[in-house]
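User: Predict the complex with heme C.
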Amino acid sequence: MSIRTSLALALLLLGGAGVVHSQERMAGYLREEYSCIMCHTDKRSAFLEGVHAERGIVCVDCHGGDAAAFEREGAHARGFRGRLSKPAAVTLCLSCHSDIARMRPFGIAPVTREEFVTSRHGQRLLAGGDTAAPSCGDCHGSHAIFPRDDGRSPVNPAQVPSTCARCHADPGRMPQGLPTNQFEEWRASAHGVALLERHNSRAASCASCHGSHTALPPGVAEVANVCGKCHRLERDAYFGGVHGRLAEGVRSVMCIACHSNHGTEAPPVDGIRVLCARCHAPNSAPELAGHQLQEELLRAERAYAEASAAIGQLVRAGERTRDEEVRLLTLNTYLHELRVVAHTLDAEPIGELARRVESISREIRERAEVVAEERWERKLLIIPLWLGVLAGVALAARKRRILIRGAPENPEETGSGKGSGP
Ligand code: HEC
Ligand code: HEC
Ligand code: HEC
Ligand code: HEC
Ligand code: HEC
Ligand code: HEC
Ligand code: HEC
Ligand code: HEC
Ligand code: HEC
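Assistant: Here is the predicted structure with heme C placed in the model:
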């Protein structure tokens, strides 16, 4: 079997790839007698799929060599670079990707050497020569590479955490002393649950907070802005309040002091006072402010629950509840606002919102009470009616007895009979 026919056979055996354009490509490479994938069969998929294959970027563009030679010696010649080391791969990928003019037609943001070099990964790999740190291919793959929106890409938002965890959850790959629990904590957090279980792709994954190519832990001064990219209202409230106005050096109370960075959750409402007491002395003004906030939030939550229950009663009584439902929506909006404004720690707006929540709740409950009273009144009105019916029944029964005996009973007769006996 000639090399040419075996190549044709090999390409046919690629099978599955029945897409028209890849068949055309195969035919093209057949003409060019492309040798690399004859021997490197595990790289065939990369030859056919992925963004680079689509743009005709193939083996020799990255590895050099002669694709028209069918012996190893010949193929591995002509500027053959062999396997690229991790730092060499960075240089290779950047040779195209840092070139703005080259990337612009594809609408891809250029990746600059500077941004990668300033990341902890880049510092470790390029300056420190530490090959435990990732090169481009560790996060993207080196062969079949897909855009981030493609589910097969390891940097697809839903995949990013497990891509990072391949190293960051593996103590063998991490330097001594660096924790390896970020993935576990994140997965159980509000963000992990929203992304993995509720498929909310707007939730924060590792790269949302660390950046993809600039991966560094956000500095203390940056945290509020990192979180604030997505939680803008909370950030604004926070910077308008006592903690946010603290001078930069003193400002240790960032979002993560109360919410944690990886195990991010809203603190339980009945634990707010305890939370404040982590930093503030018992019965100090801030600790008491925390107690007050906790009480306002608990009352507001109770007011919401009671209003919903009242609407349930109205529905069961067969009443129309359109107005009440609209009011409940308004109440819920205020409750959300309250949770945001809580970040100012300013008693006045917090108290004002809490009062609004309670007043709407009261209106809804009052309507339910009025309806319940009216129902009672109606029940009371029915009582005379029932008495009448009962009387009627009694009368009818009496009549019936008389009819059965055929004659009216005569109490006087029996009475006199008894009396006259002796
Ligand atoms: C006749 C079979 C054959 C052909 C054709 C061939 N290779 Fe190889 N290649 C091999 C074998 C066998 C090895 C592993 C042994 C070695 O390192 O030489 C290898 C190794 C490699 C490596 C890894 C080198 C390393 O240092 O670990 C790269 C990269 C590579 N080939 C790329 C190519 C490219 C690109 C082409 C096409 C221009 C090509 N090969 C064509 C057989 C082939
Ligand atoms: C976009 C650039 C690029 C293209 C195109 C490319 N490679 Fe690679 N290849 C790399 C890099 C970077 C590495 C080293 C990192 C690694 O091992 O993942 C590598 C590693 C290899 C290796 C050695 C490690 C291994 O996985 O076996 C082989 C063999 C290889 N490539 C063959 C090929 C063949 C055959 C093609 C064409 C189908 C090809 N490559 C296309 C970038 C590329
Ligand atoms: C020869 C130039 C060239 C080299 C070398 C190269 N790329 Fe690309 N890359 C491109 C072009 C062109 C595109 C755009 C393809 C498209 O959008 O259709 C692209 C697209 C991508 C994309 C998808 C971006 C997106 O969102 O669509 C990723 C990821 C990527 N390359 C990573 C890499 C990595 C990692 C390496 C090194 C292993 C590398 N590239 C090497 C030219 C190159
Ligand atoms: C630590 C993992 C990691 C490393 C290392 C890495 N990337 Fe990325 N890269 C990502 C993530 C995550 C995204 C997606 C970012 C997003 O969702 O906005 C991405 C996105 C991209 C994109 C697509 C940008 C776009 O607009 O669609 C390109 C191109 C790219 N990276 C190239 C590279 C190159 C070149 C290197 C090496 C210098 C590299 N990456 C190193 C994780 C990494
Ligand atoms: C190939 C393995 C690997 C992958 C994949 C990887 N990292 Fe890393 N990462 C490292 C190593 C090694 C270090 C260096 C640790 C050190 O010395 O501080 C590091 C350091 C970091 C640091 C700095 C930690 C510190 O305080 O020193 C952050 C943040 C980080 N990585 C985030 C990420 C994110 C986010 C991803 C996924 C997008 C990711 N990494 C993917 C290996 C990896
Ligand atoms: C909501 C934002 C956020 C998300 C999501 C996030 N991180 Fe972090 N991460 C941070 C912050 C902030 C720090 C710095 C904490 C500090 O300085 O106390 C940090 C610190 C780190 C560190 C340094 C060591 C440590 O544990 O303190 C590593 C490594 C790291 N993150 C990796 C990851 C990985 C991997 C993921 C995804 C599984 C991830 N992070 C998700 C915000 C985030
Ligand atoms: C990329 C956007 C993004 C970033 C960055 C981000 N978050 Fe989130 N966060 C979300 C989304 C989306 C949710 C889920 C909302 C839902 O569906 O419950 C969420 C949920 C939360 C929750 C739970 C809210 C609740 O109602 O229980 C808290 C608390 C939170 N984030 C705090 C933070 C903190 C603190 C940071 C910074 C360290 C941060 N987030 C960074 C998008 C983000
Ligand atoms: C001093 C502690 C503290 C700090 C600092 C803090 N928060 Fe909060 N956060 C809370 C409390 C308390 C709640 C309300 C809990 C509840 O109602 O369930 C909350 C609630 C939230 C929620 C959920 C809101 C909702 O509508 O359910 C988000 C999101 C949030 N915070 C983000 C942030 C961000 C972003 C920052 C930094 C800019 C931040 N927090 C700083 C204590 C704090
Ligand atoms: C991570 C530590 C930390 C937590 C948790 C914390 N604070 Fe603070 N707080 C500080 C620091 C530091 C200051 C500035 C120094 C000072 O006045 O004690 C401050 C200042 C304040 C002030 C201004 C005090 C003044 O004298 O002007 C108030 C009010 C306050 N905090 C309320 C709260 C409330 C309410 C909570 C709980 C919801 C809380 N703090 C949780 C650290 C914290």
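The CA atoms of residues 186 and 262 lie 5 Å apart.
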